[in-house]
């Protein structure tokens, strides 16, 4: 379908926005009136620029407070409309968004609203313009798309139809299936936004907290299927008012926005196919005059972690920790200053290439997928930027991509690995190491990624759309420098778990790699014998455990002796400890007992406070 | 009254918080349990530190999910309580906060809750502890303070009373006057928080958006009068969960918090006096066994601006602008590199003292007050830091204070100025200038102050408590780099108006001084003759004015010729233009016509976009 976006979604000047939308691959834009008003280019210049960039100008919006008014106000509103239509003619825009009246409506009659919209339709038609009437969720009388459609039917004018906005429909909990009762040709425009599950007044929710499709809680794929069944073939346009996106880089946000539309079309196409509809493949329209939905390569949900990469000018401090934790040095890469450590299925790659002046930090994650070429095709279709990786003859070619935080994500083929525990082919590129004795550490339990407040929603969409991760829970933990927000992302099986963390502004939050093990006490004991001092846990914490869980003294003594933290859920227990940081990275060693399947969120403040004491050198 | 604060209000470690609270002048603190759990000092050490600092430990909180449960759960809850009471004894804390059950209550009977609280009271009494039972706004069965009091009455136990929290009472819209029906000795603790007028779920509102008294929308002074009438004499304690305060400097936030309590006590004392009660003065308790409320010097609401000060290493660029706008150079200060320009009541002080490497920026505002010594006493009582000002013999001694953004605020006596338009005495310290011809510019209309997101609430409280400004409206304007939030502060008469602006993170937002005039067209014409190029206004803006207001072509031509902006309200019109920035400062020239008494908020995005074009050198 035709991919469009409202200019209000992006930061910058109107020209910045047009360039970014064209570069990202949008087909058209909605002109948000205030973006034009503050701009010093004439409407003719804007139109010419859009023409040169190959962008259609799909909609002019918003025109407010028109219908349901007294006769004298109607004349004033028609005068206003004439002025706007004149501007639209200069821009060459053929559709205007008319929102249901919020401020000046005094007549609640559908008949009156319809008559007034018919007057507007006459005026619009004389300019070659169509009126897309939209029910705002907070309209004075009209706040339901079914009522706006009823009024549009009553208006019975060739130039009058409706605009449907997923936010205004889904925020009110209205069933979008009713869209199928509207003839497609009377749906003149469609605006899409997702949203988080917030309980606040709908106006604030709408103006500040909308999200791109795939980032919130609504099933917009299903929403689009109703549009297709209604016979709608016009633009799918993003209208996302979001305080963060308004101030992030224009180009980056435009790419992010387009990715959400590509993902959404694919998802809707799959739902239609599942429903038995003939969904289009590869961009071709199906036979029944339906909209063509572009479908991309299947999602290939990772079956596990292949490796985690830490990069620094000097990674030897990390090697000390890995040795203390019982991992084995497996060798140096044949052609690069890159070293591999492992234990069981936990592989840590230490990269000193092109790392001058860099402190140890999380630089990449390799995921095992069933078919790397399909997974790579999907990532490319979602316009994810490729991460360069030099290979030489005889080395495995891995498909790498850059995640929003700058983290490099590699999708590595597991087709050739038939047995559990078999190592990936690329591991043979490392030599002069020791044979991997599998110790207590068996794999990577989860990885804790940290990024700025402005990259969070983009990161959620990346892992959702590219890797098919789910986003079950968002939490927050209080640290000495403020609240840290976390979004857990995971595969349905739990084989891959990521925690996406947003630190308070101006505070760097550590990344960590959590290693799964079968006996955390044994790992902790050996690590201390080898000189590790784990992150110290206060005695007050153990008193708290006693109060919360009624642990016996023997258990508390064991926990305290090894500076372990503890949690219990209805289904099991969680035992874990943390190493101090080297650079920005630390390790956590975790043991899940029974069916414990979450994270020890209540322990995070203990970690944050302890790290703060270590950073400040206070005891 | 005894001034206390919950440790959760502040950032940092528990020790950081104790030091900051003591330094700020608090009498005691509430220990927020998680602050203890993450801390590596023993309870005995915390108690000893608090003793040394002269802080009482007034409350241990929170103990959750106790009452209204099944018998077996009750036993487990009593076990938990015993553990916490043991910790409290080590801390030497005599009161525990028990919140109404949210998670595990299954019995809605007041009788059962009371019996269970009586059991808890017995246990607590054996530790010498009192139980302060609080109705959370989102309690499962108990969410109203009148019900928690009824249950406490039924419990009928010496060690059981209630805790009252203004948030839980006022957020639900419950009438606080009912507090007076509770015997003061059964109110075991009081927690105070203000809040902004947000429409969101009460839990999120409570956990993230509370404010210190005086910063939100509630009349907490009135709230305190009910407590006094009930005979409550215990601590007034701040419990403010706020994401911003959690990450701002601990010391600064503690001072800010104490200021809110000082202001609140004074306000409550005045309300009691107005009500005919015998409010205490100067900290003495009144005769009736009532709590003593400390009253401070009267607020002296400024009658106008004395001057605005711009500081820089080189202020000559500002002088060019002032000359273009028709202000007169009035002279150089006799002893300092400071120059005065004026027109009518608009006085701009240009300060080059100790300004090496500084770009022009807003450094100070002088306000005219009726009695500077009273106004200064009030500021000092509110623990505002003094701004140093060197004076020599024969120069006026001005009382200066530092506002949260670093701006210096001077309170200048107007007692000696009997006539309107008479100049302040300090103006005579400037010589070798020209005589002030009063041009079209008559005074300072408003000043636009900019500060970081973390200083905003503190700034609101400063201007409210020290100067008695009101905070009528908060707005936001979209700029190319994000939303700019503004809070207008003003005196009732409008003689002093300030706009407090918060720019998007990482973006510097200009400060500006708005000069009032009687003929903006004349000012603009002369300024252009003298070489000023005002901030350019797009033609699209004038098209928008035509559409919105139906302005005639002659008016539009006049506006466009002088690059003026325009607004119209129900009561009048607003004509204005902006100069380009010099350093961080620009000037606005405004003419208010008729009863126009607001700001042209819709024009701010036009200014922001134009300044962005000037900054980037794009046309």
Automatic annotation (TrEMBL), chains A, B:
Mg(2+) binds at residues 446, 512, 588. Residues 455-549 form the Glyoxalase/fosfomycin resistance/dioxygenase domain. Pathway: Aromatic compound metabolism; 3,4-dihydroxybenzoate biosynthesis. It catalyses: 3-dehydroshikimate = 3,4-dihydroxybenzoate + H2O. It holds the Pfam family AP_endonuc_2. SUPFAM superfamilies: Glyoxalase/Bleomycin resistance protein/Dihydroxybiphenyl dioxygenase, Xylose isomerase-like. Its EC number is 4.2.1.118. A divalent metal cation binds at residues 134, 165, 191, 239. Residues 19-258 form the Xylose isomerase-like TIM barrel domain. Keywords: Carbohydrate metabolism, Lyase, Metal-binding. Catalyzes the conversion of 3-dehydroshikimate to protocatechuate (3,4-dihydroxybenzoate), a common intermediate of quinate and shikimate degradation pathways. Belongs to the bacterial two-domain DSD family. This is 3-dehydroshikimate dehydratase. It comes from Promicromonospora alba. The lineage of its organism: Bacteria, Bacillati, Actinomycetota, Actinomycetes, Micrococcales.
């Amino acid at each position: 379908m035709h991919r469009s976006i409202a200019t209000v979604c992006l930061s910058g000047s109107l020209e910045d926005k047009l360039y970014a939308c064209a570069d990202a691959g949008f087909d058209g834009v909605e002109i948000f009136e205030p973006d034009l008003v503050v701009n010093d280019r004439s409407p003719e210049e804007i139109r010419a620029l859009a023409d040169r960039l190959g962008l259609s100008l799909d909609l002019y919006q918003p025109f407010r407070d028109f219908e349901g008014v007294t006769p004298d106000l109607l004349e004033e509103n028609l005068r206003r409309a004439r002025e706007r239509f004149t501007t639209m003619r200069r821009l060459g825009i053929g559709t205007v968004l008319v929102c249901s009246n919020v401020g000046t409506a005094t007549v609640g009659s559908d008949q009156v609203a319809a008559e007034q919209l018919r007057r507007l339709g006459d005026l619009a038609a004389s300019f070659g313009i169509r009126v897309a009437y939209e029910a705002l969720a907070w309209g004075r009388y009209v706040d339901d798309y079914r009522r706006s459609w009823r009024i549009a039917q009553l208006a019975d004018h060739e130039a009058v139809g409706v605009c449907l906005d997923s936010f205004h429909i889904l925020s009110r909990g209205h069933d979008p299936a009713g869209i199928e009762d509207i003839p497609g040709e009377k749906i003149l425009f469609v605006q899409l936004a997702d949203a988080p599950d917030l309980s606040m007044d709908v106006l604030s929710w709408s103006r500040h907290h909308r999200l791109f499709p795939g980032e919130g809680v609504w099933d917009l794929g299903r929403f689009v299927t109703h549009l297709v069944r209604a016979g709608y073939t016009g633009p799918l346009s993003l209208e996302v008012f979001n305080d963060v996106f308004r101030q992030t880089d224009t180009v980056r946000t435009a790419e992010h926005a387009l990715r959400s539309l590509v993902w959404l079309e694919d998802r809707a196409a799959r739902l239609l196919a599942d429903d038995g509809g003939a969904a289009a493949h590869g961009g071709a329209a199906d036979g029944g005059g339906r909209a063509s939905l572009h479908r991309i390569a299947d999602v290939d949900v990772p079956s596990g972690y292949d490796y985690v990469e830490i990069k620094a000018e000097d990674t030897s401090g990390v090697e000390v920790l890995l040795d203390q934790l019982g991992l084995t040095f497996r060798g140096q890469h044949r052609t690069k200053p890159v070293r591999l450590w492992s234990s069981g299925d936990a592989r840590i790659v230490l990269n000193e290439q092109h790392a001058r002046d860099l402190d140890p930090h999380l630089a990449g994650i390799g995921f095992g997928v069933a078919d790397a070429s399909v997974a790579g095709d999907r990532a490319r279709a979602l316009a994810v930027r490729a991460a360069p990786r030099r290979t030489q003859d005889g080395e495995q070619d891995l498909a790498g991509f850059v995640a929003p935080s700058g983290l490099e994500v590699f999708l590595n083929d597991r087709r050739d690995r038939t047995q559990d525990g078999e190592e990936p082919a690329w591991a043979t590129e490392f030599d002069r190491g020791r044979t991997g004795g599998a110790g207590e550490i068996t794999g990577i339990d989860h990885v804790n990624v940290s990024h700025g407040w402005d990259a969070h929603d983009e990161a959620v969409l990346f892992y959702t759309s590219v890797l098919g991760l789910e986003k079950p829970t968002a939490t927050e933990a209080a640290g000495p420098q403020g609240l840290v927000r976390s979004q857990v992302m995971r595969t349905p099986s739990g084989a891959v778990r990521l925690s996406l963390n947003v630190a308070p502004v101006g505070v760097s939050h550590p990344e960590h790699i959590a290693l799964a093990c079968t006996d955390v006490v044994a790992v902790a004991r050996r690590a201390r014998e080898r000189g590790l001092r784990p992150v110290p846990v206060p005695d007050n914490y153990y008193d708290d455990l006693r109060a919360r869980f009624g642990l016996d003294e023997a258990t508390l003594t064991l926990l305290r002796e090894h500076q372990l933290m503890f949690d219990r859920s209805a289904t099991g227990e969680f035992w874990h400890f943390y190493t101090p940081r080297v650079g920005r990275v630390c390790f956590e060693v975790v043991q899940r007992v029974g069916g414990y399947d979450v994270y020890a969120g209540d322990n995070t403040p203990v970690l944050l406070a302890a790290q703060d004491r270590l950073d400040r050198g206070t005891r």
